[in-house]
Amino acid sequence: MNWNFLRKNISLHHIDNYKLNALTMWNKLILLLTACSSLTALSAQNTTKTDSTKTQKLEEVVVAQRRQLIKNDIDKLTYDVQHDKTAQTKTTLEILKKIPLVTVDGQENIRVQGSTSFKVYRNGHPDPSLSGQNLKDILKAIPASTIKRIEVITDPGAKYDAEGTTAILNIVMMSNTKLQGVSGNVNSDVDTHGSVRLGTYLTTKVGKLTTTVNYNYMNQSRKQTENNREKVYNYVKTGEQKREYGINSTAATIHFGNISASYEIDSLNLLTASTNFFGYKVDANTQSTNERWDKNSQLIYKFNNDMTTPGYSYVNLGGRFDYQHKTHLDGEVLTLSYMLAATRQHTTFRQAYSNMVNFPVSYTSYDQNTRERFTEHTFQIDYVRPFGKHHKIESGTKHILRYNNSTSLMDYQGTTPDMESKFKHNAQVAAAYLSYVLTAGKWAARAGLRYEFTRMKASYPDGSNADFRTNLNDWVPSASLQYKIRDGQTLKLSYNTSINRPGINYLNPAVISTPTTESFGNANLGSSRNQKLQLTYMLVAPKFTLQLNPYYSFTNNGIGRILYEQNRKDVSTFQNILKSKIFGISSYTEWTPFTGTSFTLNASMRYARITLPTPYLKNSGCGGGIYFNWEQKIPWDLTLTTSIGGEYGNRIYDPYGIEGHWFFYDFTLTRRFFKDKLTVSLSAESPFIKERSSTYRIVRGDYTGYERPVMKPKCFGIGLSWSFGKLKASVKKAERSIQNDDLVGGGKK
Questions:
Q1: Residue 227: its pLDDT value, please?
Q2: 17-268+276-744: CATH topology
């Protein structure tokens, strides 16, 4: 099994810089790579013993039939997962590391072109469970062997929702086929940390009816995430210093699955329906010591903190229905869609204090009990009409009904009175779009315009604040132009605009207070607007693939977290005042010099400048990431995969801090049995690193300092995957469907 970096630390900022003796580690790594090279040479020697003419002919056939894993179209970049042999033993999260424009850091945070402002779709439409804090865990629970392709859409056109769509990752499950029968897959992974993953996938096709059932279970051990943490804050105005150090860990279980079906009424009419569920439970524990000292190194206060989550549960249920009608005109399609999404979250959070010296509050512990309810109904109509061979019009309308409810109770043990807050936030979104697509010889172009009207209403049943209403109007243009230089070479220029609306966690004004911190949302938040201009060059040759993607994006009213100090507490909230300018370039290289050997390099670099107007703060820096993968066939039908990567430089994602450096390497040995039905994999993550840390440096604001977690990344695993049946199809999907992807900061998570 290859569990790369399974780390679920809810509050951690950023993990991963190694603390082992560099010379020792690199010596061991070089020895291992040398051994791999020797095995490669041995394999080559065995090949040369065969007839040279036969060998030459065989290589020519392989080259001619080799599939290009990367394809670049006017509207998306596609990675062919189905024909990537490494996908048979990897999770979806691991495959993302190989995809152009996508990076996965040491804490398994996913970024597209350096940004976390993207959405993940399944089969062309958003799945509410594929978002928020739980996304990486779900992607680790989905075997890459069940995926046909992954599409990277960095310039969404007018047909996509304007909200939150600076980029889209569309995961397309399996392919369609006319075959009848049953096919499926059963897989399991375990590692030395004690984490376990089980999964199954089953597809049946009888006549015109196709059904698919998918279920995954994952248990994350506490040992998997155990780490030592240290925080040091230096307060600019007073000269005081706060120190926090301790240990934390998180155990978690996740259940995830879906059932879908499609029925072909005839060649022109298709009905599809699906339901999905996602359940998540967490048991987190943090033990820490907190100290605050004045500028003369005199103790102000000190206490120990024991934090637990005896009850945390999150449930997402959803369903959808699509009716697709095609006409006898090739390419003309009408789609009617409805989607229901509902989430329920219940959190019990407990803080207990001991060994207190000059304790700054009048309570010794507290329990926070929070319930959040989210319900969404969406109705949508899409229409596509071609005009001749070169022209196409896309149009549609959409209406969303969204309801958010949140209740929070703070139960204090002491003289501080209990606090209860209730908050309701409802929204209606009406949208319409029109898009034109032109294809003429070597040229392709697309231009579109989308209009969205939003009506929001907030109320406070507890009477803590006055109700308010607001209306938003957003015009969202987009355009792309692509030129085919020659076969295998394309150049594309694109421009797009996107907006982000706040979720309930950003909107809820309820105050959450601890002895050292205070946080609350802002019910007056509105949508933010981002604009991006990018150029994409693509070269596809028989043994070589290259993509270069320079881009520029900017935001003037972004939703940013505001941090400041007040009454010796670190306060956080949100405002529409963030300004950012980002210049970046992403590159992807794939090289197959000869049969059995392939190299992949995914690299990026970005310069970011992020500012706040009041008080004026400017944070800027240049950094990037790199991911290298070497896949080598070796004797005894084994495949050795070596991965090395990390991030470097001054990586800036907020106005206050600089992300720390991190580094990783891992090895996976794979063999297939029984005509490729059984796949067995052995993996080693950072086998020569005892401890690894990364430092998040706070360089701006009311306080400076750092946050540093230290972890033990060394891990070994084994994975088994069994495929059965002959059917390779999954449920057919409507070509157009509902795509809600607007919220940041909660709501759908």
A1: 87
A2: Maltoporin; Chain A (2.40.170)
